[in-house]
Hints:
Strand content: 25-35%
Number of helices: 3
Mean pLDDT: 83
Number of strands: 5
Structural class: alpha/beta
Order of helices and strands: EEEHEHHE
CATH architecture: 2-Layer Sandwich
CATH class: Alpha Beta
Amino acid sequence: MYFHPATQIEEGRIETKADFSTASEYNIYTDCSKSNQGVGTAYCAFNTSNDLVHTWQANIQINNSVLQAELTGISKAVKFATQQNISTKIWSYSLSSLQAILNTKTTSPRALKIQQNLIHHHNCSAG
């Protein structure tokens, strides 16, 4: 898949190094885990006062990878963030997920969905 330069995520919207100076009105933290009992993914959203304003969690299919779980959590966080219509930073420790989102040639349907949402919603960034 080819992305025209006008439909790419602007430089700096996805960071692969933690930069806490870029915190926003809402900060959303994602996480996932995988064990013999299953695969889970979640996020929690905080406002500028560090009040917990929203949480989400889900169990996904046992055959999903950690990368797929991370991308699912980030995707759900982006969806929540775009509905709030305020400046939001989504924080993820998953470098592979962030790189998949940055990759304009990714074949991951989840990463492509995140790319499209970020392209259309400029109030949301990730790192």
